[in-house]
Write a structure and sequence with these properties.
By secondary structure, this protein is α/β, with parallel strands linked by helices. It has six helices and ten strands; from the N terminus they run βαββαβααββαβαβββ. A ten-stranded mixed β-sheet has the order 1-8-2-3-7-4-6-5-9-10, with helices on both faces.
């Protein structure tokens, strides 16, 4: 596994380019967010999504899939966002939230049959820079369990034979994102309380 040290206050362009190329080539990256470290892949690559789902033991037909976007405008390409949902996203993002929204037909076939998609825009400069560099969303799944005290070295060891690159920006928060169901934007509901505090 390639280990890249990237500092949020001064992101190394070369390391960012290496990580972006890995994702573009269908590889799996471990990267920081504003909550847990995450496993990520190109959200528009079916092969990469299948590989990530296999690593995490996710059945894409039955479990929610989440994508990390760099902006609400990017998210709007892959999720159906009405005015009420837009107001919520604008209020809480970027931040440690995952918003469940109706999926857009633009998502790849790995999402087909799925009526929903989780949308994340983390308040983390490395994660945002990575998505912006890739130019498309990153499908994301947590690399550790909420509350688990684990170092980046231990994460790298855990996924050493499965992931291709780790983008290490130091110690991350060990709390998961707060999941908010916005399928009915007039009555958003917290499905999992995490780091983010949601007050509709």
């Amino acid at each position: 596994m390639q280990h890249l040290n990237v500092y949020p206050t001064s992101i190394d362009d070369r390391a960012l380019a290496q990580a972006t190329k890995a994702l573009s080539d269908g590889k799996i990256a471990i990267y920081p967010t504003d909550s847990l470290y995450a496993l990520g892949c190109d959200a528009l690559s079916n092969r990469a999504i299948e590989r990530l789902c296999a690593i995490k033991g996710i059945n894409p037909a039955k479990q929610m899939l989440s994508i990390v976007c760099s902006s609400i405008s990017m998210a709007a390409e892959y999720a159906q966002i009405d005015n009420r949902a837009f107001a919520l996203l604008k209020r809480y993002l970027p931040g440690p939230f995952t918003f469940i929204l109706p999926a857009s037909p633009k998502l790849p076939k790995a999402f087909k049959g799925r009526r929903t998609v989780g949308i994340r825009i983390p308040d983390d400069p490395v994660a945002i820079a990575l998505v912006e560099s890739l130019g498309r969303p990153i499908m994301s799944a947590s690399a550790s369990a909420p509350g688990e005290e684990i170092t980046t070295e231990e994460i790298a060891d855990r996924y050493g034979s499965q992931a291709d690159v780790i983008i290490d920006s130091g110690v991350a928060d060990n709390r998961a994102s707060t999941i908010v169901n916005c399928l009915d934007p007039s009555a958003p509901a917290v499905e999992r309380q995490g780091k983010g505090v949601f007050e509709p």
